[in-house]
Amino acid sequence: MARSALTRDEVLDAAASLVREHGPDALTMRRLAAELSTAVTSIYWHVGNRESLLDALVARTVADLGTIRPRGATPAERMVSVARALRRALRERPHLVAMVHERGLTERMFLPAQRALVHEAHAAGLRGAHAARAVRALQFQVVGYVLVERNRERAPVQSPAEEELWRGEDAGSDGPLARALAAPVDTERLFVDSVRALVDGLLGGAPGNTGEATPGDTGDGDVGRGPYSQ
Question: What UniProt keywords are attached to this protein's entry (predicted)?
C-alpha cells in the first residue's frame, strides 16, 4: 500500500542512503519508490525527474559539508578538528562527493572548510600568503589521505601483505619498529598524527607572519585560488 504522507526531505534521505550504499546507478525512481513504500508518481511530485533528484542530492551534499564547525581550545586544535571532520565527511559519502565533483562543484563544496581554516589561521597570527599556504596544505593533506585510504581499501589482496613482510625483521636491530610495521595500520591515529605535525609546522614556521607574498602567491586575496579552493 502506498503511504499517504511523504516529505521532500524523506525522499532525499532515502535517495542519499541508496547512493551511499550502492552508488548512483542503483538510484532509480522505481527502487526509490519501493524503499519508501509509495508510488513512483509521488516521487516525481516531490523531486521532479531523476536528474532533478541528483541535482538536489548534490546541493544537499554541498550544504552538509558546510556544517563543519571547529572544536578545541586553541587555533591549532581547531584546525586539526576541521581536518578530521572534513575527512570523516568525505569518507562517509564517497559516491555523493563524486557526484559533486562531476557537476563541477568541488570548489564550492570545500569552501566552508576553507573559511573555517582561514579563521583559525588568522587567530594563530598567520596572514596573507602564509595563511593561504596553511589552508591549502591542510586541504591537500585531507584529500590526499582520503584518496590513499580509498585506494588501499579497493586494492586486491596483497601477498605477501605488509604485515608479513615485516614479521621477523629486526629493522636494523629496532625490534619495536619492525613489530609496529607488522601491526595493522591505525588510519585514524596516523591521520591525526600527520595533521598535528603539519599544523605545528605551519603555525610555528611562518617567518615573521608578515604576509609578504612569495613568487606564485598573491596575498590575502589568493586564499580562494587553487585546485580545492574558490
Answer: DNA-binding, Transcription, Transcription regulation
Task: Compute the average pLDDT of residues 74-96.
Answer: 95
d(C-alpha 63, C-alpha 57), whole Å:
10
C-alpha span between 59 and 66 (Å, rounded): 11
Class of domain 64-207 as given by CATH: mainly alpha
Same fold, 8-48 and 64-207: no
Domain boundaries defined on the chain: 8-48, 64-207
CATH number of 8-48: 1.10.10
Q: Which of 64, 39, 67, 228 is nearest to 132 (CA)?
A: 228
For 148, the 3-state DSSP assignment is helix
Total-model pTM: 0.78
**Which pairs from 191-196 meet CB under 8 Å and 24+ separation?**
191/83, 191/84, 191/87, 191/145, 192/80, 192/84, 194/141, 194/145, 195/80, 195/83, 195/84, 195/138, 195/141, 195/142, 196/76, 196/80
CB atoms within 10 A of CB 22: 12
Cα–Cα dist 29/41, whole Å = 9
In 124-184, which ranges are continuous DSSP H helix?
128-154, 162-166, 175-182
d(CA 206, CA 131): 9
State residue 207's pLDDT score: 46
Cell 556544517 belongs to which residue? 67
* pLDDT (tens digit per residue) in 147-203: 999 998 888 888 888 777 777 666 667 778 888 888 888 999 999 999 999 999 999
